[in-house]
Amino acid sequence: MQKFYNKIFSIFSQNSFFIKEFFYYSFNKKKLKTLLEKKNPLVSIILPTYNRSEMLKTRSIRSILKQSYTNFELLVISDGSTDDTEEIVNSFNDVRIKLIKISRNKKRYPQTAINHWFAGPVFAINKGLSIVKGDWIARIDDDEIWGKNHLKFTLDGLYQGKCEFCSSKRFELRKGIFTKEIGADLLQVNNYGLKIGGVNTWVYAGYLKFMKSNINCWRKENNKVNDTDVCNRMMRLGVKTHYLEKCTHISFPREKDGLVGSKYYLMNEKEILNKYNIK
After folding, report:
1. Which residue of 57, 79, 207, 259 shows the fewest CB atoms closer than 10 Å?
2. What is the span of the domain harbouring residue 217?
């Protein structure tokens, strides 16, 4: 019964998203021409985090501050962190960095390890989308690293392709060795026949900030992860995309055992539940 309910709920939810987003996109897409004429645009970077201050210090924020393209604002959305996240973020002493704290005191979905993977950062991402000021929006997770030209290369791709959304390949790093290049995510190629790189390579038009992450993405039968859900909704609208056949992002194992993504969550269920469950 629950599976049937989730299926009906998801169908209704996706159609509701489409109707609302179709209206907003139809109104806003005419802004692309003016946006592409703008020199030195502001990029808003959304970085959701929860109790991973060391990752902020050694990976994500450090790589952002090394970008060759420097006109950006970094929104670090602390989703109820109880560690030294605030101290670490403030220690960078950079006016482009803004720390936004949100409360984490209410259950948001059934608390299983895999649901934390599907929908964990949704509240933080949506908070960031509600306050961005940039002409373009970029996304990065707290444990990821951008190559120093990530923003430059993706902006170049957007302008050259006259597009609204750009993504790219990434490197995977295992035991200190670059093992392979990762191209378009198969989950995101889908029925639209478009190449889309992982979420940490995304840069897209600021006027698409109405494309909020879906807290009920875990209910879907396919593309349950929050970023693949919103990506599919963008593609359904016909958002103009560009894909870079070069690596601009470095993907590390999430933790000490070398696993990445959902594999880590499933193999370390007890640890994930202890860390992310809201009492």
Report:
1. 259
2. 2-276
